Amino acid sequence: MLTKQPLRVVTWNCNGALRKKWPRLAELQADLYIVPECEDPSQTRDFAYRAWASNHLWTGINKNKGLGVFASPELKLQPVKLDLSPLELFLPCIVNDRWPLLATWTKQANSPNFGYIGQLWKFLQTHREFLRHPQAMLVGDLNSNSIWDEWDRWWNHSDVVRELSELGLTSCYHTHFGETQGKESRPTFFLQRKVAKSYHIDYAFTADQWSVQSVHIGQAAEWLQDSDHLPMVLDLNPRDKAELHKNNC
């Protein structure tokens, strides 16, 4: 079981070579790290990286750039087998035999019509029941924002946010800061690492049995030397049934 509260969750697209960057990430002292674009720890010769990643799950087509979930020793990670082909990339798992986590790094996936957020939309059409749980989480790099919605497309970012809401999942960032989708004041991605080309494309959605204590986005000056993304750090508290009943009255 988790021995401390709140639960700290970090998502950070490391832009490759996590074996060289994990010490900085470890300084955030998270219980769970969701890391797109990392190499497979089981296929690395870097023993320090392998030791740090002793409790992990990983998926990817290329051993050098996939999607990883890394957990503290107190947490149990159990992979869930879903038919995900040809979707990229999703890593579904159960944490502590209790709650579902869907780690994400949406990609173009050689799809002419359903790249990036379209991949998550397709996942939801087939596997939405995986996220129908009062402690469900969806965390990672969606490569998407509602500013890129298209008027004649039925699987826009806003459509996916709506479908997640119907499952009871809401964005921790938007809840905590009181901001609306597409109006984010804190970017998570800098195209070509340029401050003038900044966007918010990394997310954490949680169901109602998690309350958001804090959300923090890393500073560009501190993190852009390692990646074109900034880490999102979330502190989450589990709500008990009595609190949920009181809030719903």
Tell me about this structure:
This protein has 249 residues and is of the alpha+beta class. It has a single domain, classed as Deoxyribonuclease I, Chain A, CATH 3.60.10. The longest helix is centred in the middle third of the chain and has 11 residues. The radius of gyration is 17 Å and the shape is globular.
List keywords for this structure.
14 strands, 6-stranded mixed sheet, alpha+beta, Deoxyribonuclease I, Chain A, 249 residues
Helix/strand order: EHEHEEEEEHEHEHEEEEHEH
Which of globular, elongated, flat, extended, rod-shaped describes the shape? globular
Sheet with most strands: 6 strands, mixed
Low-confidence parts? 242-249
Strand order of the largest sheet: 3-4-2-1-14-13
Strand content: 25-35%
The total count of strands amounts to 14
CATH topology: Deoxyribonuclease I, Chain A
CATH hierarchy class name: Alpha Beta
* Number of structurally distinct domains: 1
Mean pLDDT: 94
CATH architecture title: 4-Layer Sandwich
What count of helical segments does DSSP give? 7
Decide which structural class fits the backbone: alpha+beta
Let me know the CATH homologous superfamily: Endonuclease/exonuclease/phosphatase
Q: Classify the helix fraction into a percent range.
A: 10-25%
The radius of gyration computed from the alpha-carbon positions, rounded to a whole number of angstroms, is 17 Å
State the separation between the terminal residues, measured CA to CA.
31 Å
